[in-house]
Amino acid sequence: MKAVIFDLDGVITDTAEYHFHAWKHIAEQIDISFDRSINERLKGISREESFESILIFGGAETKYTNAEKRELMHQKNQYYQTLISQLTPENLLPGIGRLLCELKRENIKIGLASSSRNAPEILRRLEIIDDFHAIVDPTALAKGKPDPEIFLTAAALLGVFPADCAAIEDAEAGISAIKSARMFAVGVGHEQSMLGADLIVKRTGDLTLDLLHEEWEQQRIKSV
Fold it and tell me: Is 31 noted as a catalytic residue in this protein?
């Protein structure tokens, strides 16, 4: 294992709640009912795809021009940025700080593959941006998750082969993207949402480098 690539939301910190409130704020402005079940469907996909999903759910997919959609998405992002301005290092999910230290100690490269355009700002507020050797710019990608492009790009930026990478996700689309990239997939959350993952943990606090190494080796033995 030469590199570990992280998703952001739900893996490094939990900004999903902020996304929920920001999308709800916009949906209510345009008279679309928005609840947590709808929010769950937006995990791991881009801002544009998320907004289109909300419009389709509300039967309003043809109601707005592209310019109006861009303005509403801009308003959502502004509201979201206001919320994440409250983030501090205490908002790191349990065990992540320890895992980053273990990876650095072993000289294992660290990358970020998040569809969030606010990822660098979030990492700065968490005071861990200097731990990352590569952060993928989602605006430079042709396709979002579950396409593997974001993880393949992370591996290329890190200078390692995909087969030498483990990647950590909390969404089904992310796990599919990791497996399509032919990387070792680590899922955080409920088993039914992590189908195809090589290793599943219920919470980030269960993640250690020893566990990653152990399961990595077991997977290599199985594949021989």
Answer: no
Catalytically annotated residue among 9, 130, 147, 164: 9
Select from 184, 172, 177 the least CA-distant residue to 218: 184
CB distance 43 to 170 below 8 Å: yes
Please list, in sequence order, all residues whose beta carbon lies within 8 angstroms of the beta carbon of residue 175, skipping any fewer than 6 positions away: 169, 185, 187, 194, 195, 196, 197
Tell me: pLDDT of 41 over 70.
Answer: yes
% of the chain exceeding 70 in pLDDT: 99
- Whole-model pTM: value is 0.85
Give the model's pLDDT for residue 222.
79
- How far from 86 is each of 18, 100, 103, 126, CA to CA, in Å? 11, 22, 27, 10
Active site residue 7: yes
Give the orientation angle of helix 149-158 with respect to helix 172-180, to 10 degrees.
60
153-187 tens-digit pLDDT: 999 999 999 999 999 999 888 999 999 999 999 99
Q: Which residue of the set 7, 130, 131, 137 is catalytic?
A: 7
What's 111's DSSP letter?
E
